[in-house]
Fold:
Amino acid sequence: MTEHRVDFEPIGRRGQCRADQSLRDCAQQMGIELVSLCGGKGTCGRCKVRVLEGEMSQRTLAEIEALSTSQIESGYRLACQTYPPGDCKVYVPPESLTAPQRTQVEGLQVDIRPDPVVIPYRVEMTPPSLQDNEADTERLLRVLREQHGIEHPSIDFRVLQELPETLRSFKWQLQASVRDGEIVALRSWPSRQIGLAVDLGTTKIAGYLLNLSTGQVMASKGIMNPQIAYGEDVITRVAHAMESQQGTEQLHKSASTALNQLAIELCTTIGAKPEEIVEVVIVGNTAMHHLFLGLPVKQLALSPYVPAVRGAQDIKARGIGINIAQGAYVHVLPNIAGFVGADHVAVLLATNMRQKKGVVLALDIGTNTEVCLSCDGVMSSVSCASGPAFEGAHIKHGMRASEGAIEHLRIVDDRIEYQTIGGARPMGLCGSAIIDAIAQLYLAGVLDERGRMDLNHRRVRSTDGTSEFVLVDEEGSGGATITITQIDIRQIQLAKGAIRTGIQILLEANGRSEEEIQEVMIAGAFGTYIDVASAVTLGMLPAIPLNRFRQIGNAAGTGARMALSSRAARKEAQEIADCVKYIELAATPQFTRTFAQANYLGKYRIVHGEREVISSNGNQAIE
Ligand code: FES
Structure:
């Protein structure tokens, strides 16, 4: 098949592609990760590129629907729908790239008493002789028994394969890393014991290197999850995995490659090597958990949405493509249900939810938002399909939290003030700014409680048949025009309505009212950066005093670190997973009515599906 050259600018990457490959496929082949919410079906409109040179295939109906007239006139195409028949050059706008973006690694500071599952033992052996010709393995295991009282020691086969040379190179004095009686690594004495904790998120991956002897974090780093190239939400990725065995393998490989790279980068910062890592703990939602382990996902996607496994798993790292110490294990925390996974268990572990007194709420906001209500330690959880809108997806000028994204916005007198990430010129709105914008427009009376826009406002215009409010207009000075459209507002209403519905149904299932909530802990990157007052104004969160809310950062990462450092924390995680009651939202009789009410803007409480307004908008003027 003929090949042609494709040049991606401004990235400066070029290579050969076949005529049957779309621009998206070409980009992926060259390691350029385009945003791909729909997995290449042409429905999300996020893989936009601009053709600079060369012929392209005919524009598809999907492109005509997804792109505005002005974008079409400027040469924009959807990469997943476009097939170049010859050499070409295309421009990739920053918002079509999945990286670099702000990632969240900071979380709760918790005191962890180190009690690791992998323990280092100093081993001193007498070398063999003609009079003492005991085999190397039996010699080592006997010494472990005699010197350290380990009753039934064993050795990992890969460690065994290198044992004769290892013993002799260390002159019969070394450090054995032992996990439940099994030798998983041999090193010189004394060597540090390093572990890796990972929060494998749908969008972001946070990694932490820990000194297992002290529990101290030695290095941390966040990266984007490269599985985004196969679809931005879990549903699209699960569908990709279900299409073929190759799809399952691609998703597993994508995650394991990212974890290996993350391990290398973290180790480099402290002058270590990944082979020094003797244990890994991973948390993630149930879909990420299954895709990472290469488990079947079909049963997750179909009612009644059951996971392949719920309990914690201990798996040889090498068996799932993780390159660390030869015999090391990956410990995966337990899941709760099909849509409430190990990451939620980790949040509940980090927040000590089982021991909390009174009525406490914990939310981990993401493309799926898990909410747990604890009433004196009796916990129940729901999963809310909040979708990717808070990540800026499906929002006209939405973008991920990277440089140039407006992160906060407010209306002061008749002006709009904003702050961008990195202080750069504004390019779009990330999730926290979208929340602010809608809250501020509601308070200013531009939006009513149903989210309808005042079409007579001077900043409201109609573009391609849709009303939009102009937030930033810098086109005259070579910058961007940033608007928020009526469709964007609807998307956010659905997303925030899903979360509020989850909260209300949990309260009603436990016979509690929102006034009784003593504390609301908001976890996750989005939850860390939002203005809680804006979220309350939107009706996303209950209208209770703001001092009851706490933004706790990456609590799932904190829970993963706790489980890495402490055997007791792993036991607690399993007990949490066993005792949390999972409530399937869509199966509750009050779901539809509650969801309809939870879509409204403003401060209100919902009682038995009825909305009671607490206060109307503030009528702050904006001209
Ligand atoms: S429109 Fe291109 S990936 Fe969805």
Q: What stands out?
A: Confidence is low (pLDDT under 50) at residues 617-623. The radius of gyration is 27 Å. The domain at 195-342 is CATH 3.30.420.480 (Nucleotidyltransferase; domain 5).
